[in-house]
Specification:
two-stranded antiparallel sheet; alpha+beta
Amino acid sequence: MPMSRTGLSSLMGYQEGGGINTILDEYQKDYESVQKSAFDPSALKERIQAFSQYLPMPRQESIYDLISDLGKGLLAQQTQKMPSLGLGLAYGFNLYKEAADKKKEEAKKISNTLFSLALKDYEADRDNEQKFKQSLVDKKYDLILEDMKNTGKMFQSKNPTAEALNFILTAEKNPTLKYKPDGSLTNEYAIAKAFVEKPQVQYVNTELGIQPVQRPGFNLEQIFPTQPIENKTTINVGDMFPSAPYLSYQLQLDGKTFLNTADGKTYVWNPTKQIMEPTDA
């Protein structure tokens, strides 16, 4: 069953005949409330473990490596004129320590790389989740504007954003406020549209303290198209106009005027304003 206008209004957060004053404030609050999910150390640890499959740690030195290095040290002393057991053991211990230190440094670099990769991947997911939630907020208020456009509601508050949106809503009913005779946007409409679509920066409390949050402006193009729709449909004499709200308008013999069968008056189509104008105006 299609949702009624009252039902849609309730769903969107306002009721028929009131509550519109707060919609813009609610939009700002909703947008600011969308923050990144809480940092989860266990999730970061899981990513580090996953990446470690592709960057394995070097094998640690063992007792067998120590024995091998001591043997190398003793063997090296056999080539000396006066072999020394102590010097041979010392040389072997140095070989073992150098190899262990080298592997320890290599492991440290790999560990840092794994942490950086995992953190970058985790933060990217948190950012994407936040952007998705913000897109849901945008969609919610796009639906509100769409409903206001269809029902003729207006914002009651007097702040600049509300007044600009009210002008745009009014222009949908009166195309002369939206388009010049040549089909371009009027200066007033262009200014109002640019103002509403301009991103705004707000400062909100986050887990990192007070941070700037950029809220994108309203995306008006889908709701309030700014290009007149060209009617390329061929209409023959006797045909009805092919689109609402002029479906009851019939093209007359002169090929220019339309008879509105609902009121018996004749009209001409203004392609720039995208409206029917009475011939006796």
